[in-house]
Amino acid sequence: MQTTFPRLMLEHAAKRPTAPALREKVYGIWQTTTWAQLAVLVRDLACGLAQAGVRRADHVVVVGENRPRLYASMLAVQSLGAVPVPLYQDAAAAEYLFPARNAEVRMAIVEDQEQVDKMLEVRAGHPPLARIWYDNPRGLRNYAEPGLESLDALVEAGRAHGAAHPGFFDGQVQAARPDDVAAMFFTSGTTGNPKGVVHTHRTLLDRAGAGARFDKLTEREEVLAYLPPAWIGQNIFSYAQWLACGYVVNCPESASTVMIDLKEIGPTYYFAPPRVFEGLLTSVTIRMEDAGRIKRWLFGRAMEVARRVGPQIMDGKAVGLADRIAYGLGNLLVYGPLRNTLGLSRVRVAYTAGEAIGPDLFTFYRSIGVNLKQLYGSTETAVFVCLQPDHEVRADTVGVPIEGVEIRLADSGEILVRSAGLLKEYYKNPEATAEVKDAEGWYHTGDAGFIDAGGHLKIIDRAKDVGRLLGGPNDGAMFAPKYVENKLKFFPFIKEAVAFGDRREKVCAFVNIDFEAVGNWAERRNLPYAGYVDLAGKPEVLELVRECVEKVNADLAADAKLAGSQVSRFLVLHKELDADDGELTRTRKVRRGYIGDKYQALLDAMYGGRTEQYIETAVRFEDGRTGKVSATLKIVDAKVLPALRQAA
Questions:
Q1: Is residue 648's pLDDT more than 50?
Q2: Strand, coil or helix: 392
Q3: Domains and CATH numbers, the chain
Q4: Residue 405 phi/psi, 5° resolution?
Q5: Does the pLDDT value for residue 557 go beyond 60?
């Protein structure tokens, strides 16, 4: 696109001044910001930032939940030719220090007291951070820190500056070019310091436009923005495509009200990672198990019909008259009310990405009439690489390359991508840039996969994580840890899994149970427990997990290439893996190497043939306090099956 984000915002304000641009729920009431109101707010904020010293190419940190004034702040920063740097609002202050230093940040715009406190802590280690503005003043009345002001004060200063320099804002917006840097997103830092991914207006808007055209998005869409704005997926759906299409972005009141707000808004265009869809289905399953016998019978019968013919109806295939009538009745009595309960009654297009989604979970949503599809992309590709076309949706692929995308497979099986949406560079890291982006413009994704006969891309694992077993009966067999972990997580009782086996003679795994799902399972069986540690160590729970592991093994045994990846031994960890403890990234990706080092004693016990192992682990609580959790963990053997068919 030959334009920029601020220009698009001004175009919407000129053409549709009274149309809603953003909504925010405040004290239970939805408040609307029109495009005209947004343009005025952005103008005032930009003028205020300019007076405060923001110049072209400066980096300005933005931290908080999805809030209209934070969106406006990003537009204001971009209007001056500066670069917004969104960071994860739930990160610890120490995690902000590297990005702040790397990007030479002098100014930050944050949501509330929690983020102010973190920024003040960052300033102790990065003194150039001179100015901090906050949106929500609650709890900040008695703060007297130098350079700390409210966004209200910034708006007032900007209004005065704009009145004194009437052509300043428009001149700044017109001076921007599509190839100017629009934003910088820091990667999750799975294997080291995070890298600043630099994107221009052109790269982000090119992919936003391609995705919009693929799914025929218009200004009439409703979107709920509830995932971290620092994650490029949320940024594309609720910022880049918002400005490209002009639809309405709705900001929930808080993380705890998202499900209520989802039902009230009824989005037409929806994105969620698999864990959100898993959580929704788990809540439905728990409610149905607690329902009366007649309701359970009706739900069971209706879902039998849905699983049999629902996906075919969704894909536009022919279905017999009797089945169509049965499905229509199920839609009236079960599927329709269920979609409404989940907040998905108006969804026209729903996407999931980030991790593999279980075929049963995928089929469930499509069978009840939710057009759930998968996409493939990354921070470096501005998200949209492959999307699933309507009527060509399968659980085991991530779609076809969309407009403007070329895909090539390296001899190693690594997926290479070339498109107009690729990152400009990793900030101040030419070596890392050269590693992923070659002279011909191909981005090396690091993912291993292949294109199937239908032209759809199928992902196996991270290329660097695909290993080999050494020794034993499966010597030389392929080991794909993420593939195994995802299959384990397809079960509602398993929240996280970490598989080990590269250069070892067998595969072993750590498992986290889903506390809510397993807790409900235990209560229905009158199985008492005192908390997570107690529940995770119950013999009955270990047996439940063993059944899940052996089902995965049976599935893997049917694939000659991956039969060696069956899990021989496992244990259920005594604590949930947590980003605050360094075990997960902020996007909830497992840091397998870190976990292996941290729990080396458990790995040694599993591979050493022991049946139990004592472990004591330091943990960090949400309020910053630290403590220790200890337990003697049982190590369980699982049945490993012979491969059911041989490789060709």
A1: no
A2: coil
A3: 5-200+229-247 (3.40.50.12780), 274-462 (3.40.50.12780), 466-637 (3.30.300.30)
A4: -115, 135
A5: yes
